[in-house]
Q: What sequence folds into this?
């Protein structure tokens, strides 16, 4: 692996030692690829994904241009689906990424959509 990936893995392990999702307060996990941003709300006690969303669902233009506005839309869509499933409080798992740019935009979009964290 590259030096950058090794650093992210180390950060990810440190975050996951402290952050865990429960039925009352699920975990919102973020993953970024070069073309898409993904987010899931996970109940770790049951090992179940409660809700998920990605920029692939937004259409061809948004998926190819994974910018902060697309990430914010993914956050809003995820919040909507999580509320339908009965989840309003989450704990944020940035998955080793810096809380900046697309990750921050997704978090802000989820807050706008009604998730509390």
A:
């Amino acid at each position: 692996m590259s030096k950058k990936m090794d650093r992210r893995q180390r950060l990810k392990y440190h975050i996951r030692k402290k952050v865990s999702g429960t039925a009352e307060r699920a975990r919102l996990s973020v993953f970024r690829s070069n073309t898409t941003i993904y987010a899931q709300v996970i109940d770790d006690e049951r090992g179940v994904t409660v809700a998920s969303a990605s920029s692939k669902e937004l259409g061809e233009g948004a998926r190819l241009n994974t910018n902060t506005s697309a990430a914010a839309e993914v956050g809003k869509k995820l919040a909507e689906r999580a509320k339908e499933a009965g989840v309003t409080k989450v704990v944020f798992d940035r998955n080793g990424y810096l809380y900046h740019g697309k990750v921050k935009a997704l978090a802000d979009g989820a807050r706008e959509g009604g998730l509390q964290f």
Summary: The helical segments are 3-18, 60-64, 68-84, 102-113. The beta strands are 26-32, 37-43, 48-54, 90-93. The chain has a mean pLDDT of 91. The first strand starts at residue 26 and ends at 32.
